[in-house]
Amino acid sequence: GLFTLPDLAFPSAGAYRIFADFTPADAPRDPHGNRTPVTIFHDINVGDATAYNPQPLGPVRKTQKIDEYHITLATNPTTLLSILAATLTFTITDTAKKPVNNLEPYLGALGHSVILHENDLQFIHTHPYESNAPAQPGTIVFNAAFPQQGKYKIFMQFQHMDKVITTDFIVEVAKTTS
Hints:
This protein has 178 residues and is mostly beta strands. It has strands at 14-22, 38-46, 63-66, 69-76, 80-81, 85-93, 112-117, 123-126, 139-145, 150-160, 163-174. Strand 10 and strand 11 (163-174) form a beta hairpin. It is globular.
């Protein structure tokens, strides 16, 4: 197959990493029965990359307001540790703080999450647990393991009323000591 982005525009000169994340129809299945995705990337320089000045992610951010949605991220454990599995629960409410409980499937799931490490852009793509899909209590729950300590930016997408919403959060991951 071929995937093309004909009108891709970059906002400024600098170093960029482009990810392609796809699941072949004949891919092996993980323990949950989901097909295993393939992720590839390509680094490119746009314009004068020597002028590129990377910016820090900033402080931890676990809440977002996008249009009429309030999205909050809760983690379990509260202090994220490298290598160990963590649960990421995104709670989606409307302007009246009522749960948005009629989310729609988007690309085959209630949500998608891409997680990038601040320094080296390690890529993690997770799908939510689907066990809460019928009740839809205004939450989407993911499981992730962060490979190393540091800051990560989490992008999460969901669909509601035919509209895809993309949010972003920043978390800090501590080094596992044992």
